[in-house]
Known about the structure:
With 196 residues, this protein is an alpha+beta fold. The protein has three helices and eleven strands. Helix 2 (97-110) runs parallel beside helix 3. The radius of gyration is 16 Å and the shape is globular. This is Endonuclease/exonuclease/phosphatase domain-containing protein.
Amino acid sequence: MFKQILSHNLQMFFFFTEAHIYKNQTELYSLPTYQHIIKPQDRNNSHGLACYIKRNMQCPEIPLPDVTSLETLGVELIIPNSTLTFIVIYKPPKVTMADLLRDLQIILKAIDNVQKTIILGDFNVDALAAESQPLKHLMQQFTFKFTHPGTTHNHGSCLDHVYLPKDIQNMYNCYTFLPTYFSDHFYVHLQLGISA
Length: 196
């Protein structure tokens, strides 16, 4: 899965949720032109997260608070004249909205002073449905805006969210949603107005 997407060698960075990579497999997923940060799947129902960034870019992992219901990965991407922070989130389907909101608020408070932060991932909450309003409201309280109204899943829902803060909402150019043969989730391509 990873190698097919990354073999195009055009993108600066990729994030994967439900990566299903175990600790002893991380080197199997290395690629010559990308460095990676992998939070491997463990035997305790986590699914694993992965981030691939072009080798010529600085991208330290940043610590995030431990939360009980979400898998999280924080990465700082250092680009000329700026730094972008990415928070990747996976919410398992059985996690309740109340638990999601509680843990997400802990994360949002911890990163409240971090500029240019993009929060994205598989939230397993349909952003097109009324059930997502408490989530969108919480994100708005911390100046994050849900930015793509398209479907990201074979069943016509939008489970994969991208939230941008006010300070970079004018940086994104477009979204592309592409079905994949290896998942029921679409590949979500966010194009930002940055260069490396």
